[in-house]
Amino acid sequence: MMSVNTIAKLFLVAGVLLLSLGLLLLLFEKCSIPFGKLPGDFVFRRKNITIAFPFMTMLIISLLLTVGINIFWRWFR
User: Fold this and answer.
1) Would you place residue 73 in the very low, low, confident or very high pLDDT band (cuts 50, 70, 90)?
2) Coil, strand or helix: which one is 69?
3) Closest by Cα among 71, 56, 77, 54 to 20
4) 11, 14, 19, 23: CA torsion to nearest 10
5) Three-state DSSP state, 19
6) Phi-psi region of 45 (alpha: psi -120 to 50; beta: other; left: phi over 0)
7) Which pLDDT belongs to residue 33?
8) What is the DSSP string of 30-50?
9) For residue 26, which phi and psi values (nearest 5 degrees)?
10) CB neighbours of residue 58 within 10 Å
11) Is 0.85 surpassed by the pTM of this model?
12) How far apart are alpha carbons 42 and 63 in whole angstroms?
């Protein structure tokens, strides 16, 4: 069973991560990085259906999150 202190720390970390993600999204909006329109991102359009497969964008975000989480866990270890 987790103590209240541990749960409080988890909520604080989750809040900081959400705040950071929100700030990053605001910065990406103003930045010229064309996420979703990179080479390797596929979009299929038919008459009234659009299907997007942002493979390269997902790979880049996955890489950044993996590096960030590894640095975070090693720093708090």
Assistant:
1) confident
2) helix
3) 71
4) 180
5) helix
6) beta
7) 65
8) HS---TTSSTTEEEEE-SS-E
9) -65, -40
10) 13
11) no
12) 19
Query: Which DSSP symbol is given to 52?
Result: E
Tokens for 64? Answer: 């950044």
Say if residue 60 is exposed, middle or buried (CB neighbours under 10 Å; 0-12, 13-18, 19+).
middle
Which single residue is written with the structure tokens 């202190």? 5
- Token digits of residue 37: 């329109």
Distance CA 15, CA 13 (A): 5
Where does residue 20 rank: exposed (0-12), middle (13-18), buried (19+ CB within 10 A)? exposed
- Sign of the torsion formed by the C-alpha atoms of 65, 70, 71 and 77: positive
